[in-house]
Task: structure prediction
Amino acid sequence: MNFDYNTSRKQLVLPEYGRNIQKMVDYIKTVEDRKERNRLANAIIAIMGNLNPHLRDINDFKHKLWDHLAIISNFELDIEYPYEIPKPEMFQQSPRRVEYGTHEIVYRHYGKAIELMIDEICEMPDNEEREKLVNVIANHMKKSYLTWNRDTVSDDVVLKDLKRLSKNRINVENIKLNEVREIMSRKRNKRNMRKK
Result:
């Protein structure tokens, strides 16, 4: 008895559409009547749209489906495309290299965003709004610290780090940080709400 395993079959070009779509596209390539090929291609596009309804959220999703049809057919399908047919070379190019930032993050457990926010707050006038924002950021720093160090988090360490990140431009004497158990219970409550 001979079994037909997927590992012994032709590899799928776009696996998200499945083997049946691949077989349909392969069949269309054998149909000689161009009008019939066009009709079948439109039917396959409708099926592909139903298989991947999330594509409807993408701008011009029909265009994307037609591009996928061209890719699945290995650009060999002779039909009337309603859009410009993509060229195979477009998919053979290597993506351009993404440059990484060259800036150093002083405390990785707080992240670069916290550093940028602290710089912004330091430029603000000294008023009640600034004081509230400093408190929010300080408590967020404590929460971030807890993510990496679950045992203990000293308020003094967080406040010292805030002072260093602000280059002594923020007065940390009046900052009230939340208790560790309060932060942890909030985290637990959020996790429990996500599970529901």
Observations:
- The chain has two domains: 7-91, 112-185.
